[in-house]
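forwarding from the other thread:

> can someone predict this with iron/sulfur cluster?

sure thing
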Amino acid sequence: MFKPKAIYFEKEIENYQLGKELLEKYKDTPKIEIQNHNAIEEMRKKENKEFLNMKANLIIGTRKTHKFVENHKISDYLVPYTSSGCIAACMYCYLVCNYNKCAYLRLFVNREEMLDKIIKVSNKSEKELTFEIGSNSDLILENTITKNLVWTIENFKADKGNLTFPTKFDMVDEILPLNHKGKTIVRMSVNPEEIINKVEFGTSRLKGRIEAINKLKEAGYKIGILIAPVIFVENWEELYLELIKRLNEELTEKAKKEIFFEVIFMTYSYVHTKINEEAFPNAINLYNKEKMTGRGRGKYWYKEEIRKEGEKFFKEQLKKYFPNNEIVYIV
Ligand code: SF4
């Protein structure tokens, strides 16, 4: 169970039920009052090597901007929801691009406001919309601290529409008995065991993630599998083939029948390189000069020929081991 070193909180959270509950839950943890969760001077001044120590704290405030961003992959909108940042530390985490070393977990207690807006937009729309509520954090992980996911699934009482989120965690037991009405799509993110061990620090192991998929399917949830991010390490073909075979062997027939796949190649950045060098000096280097190329604003992605090779590999192998399952996209 996560025990924060300190709680940084906006005074306003005392006006919300969840804010009160969290203050009570962490009543014995040192507290520091802040004006704004986006501007904690003390954190900004810390060095990159403090990255993990910074993630040992919990920041609690209210979300002030609620702008939905159109999306055309798996959902219709990316919705800023109850948290941003994370207490785990995957070396490629996309949140580092947005928050730099301040990618620690922030919780937002005005959840009623956020869910109400989703329900209103959903009910107003003529077509059935899907809202991505986990693009800024990992909601299965967050749920172990706030129970927000349980609350969300129970209170998503829109006439139509779906919620979706990705996760790298297996603590799904609390959402299994809920009356989700088939309106929540969980997308489990997987990588070969070796990559999880060397790169995805603090996340659930592959075995637990596969078991979680089986349990969620048994509980009637719609499930997707994200093979993401694909990292083209030296022996990538061998590792990803092993992963696909393992999914084929360990997923239940019920799960295999209905899952869909998304495949995403890793993107990386100069900021990641700097933070990882200082925070994880003994870890592997994910930047590969031969295989990557610039993408503007300090970002890198794999060169076209590598991506093409990857695309061909995943299309072929998924077709072989999962012939009846849709690959929604490979990017
Ligand atoms: S679990 Fe997700 S949000 Fe957390 S560090 Fe890893 S990639 Fe980032």
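Residues 7-330 form a domain with the pyruvate-formate lyase- activating enzyme fold (CATH 3.80.30.30). thats all i got for now
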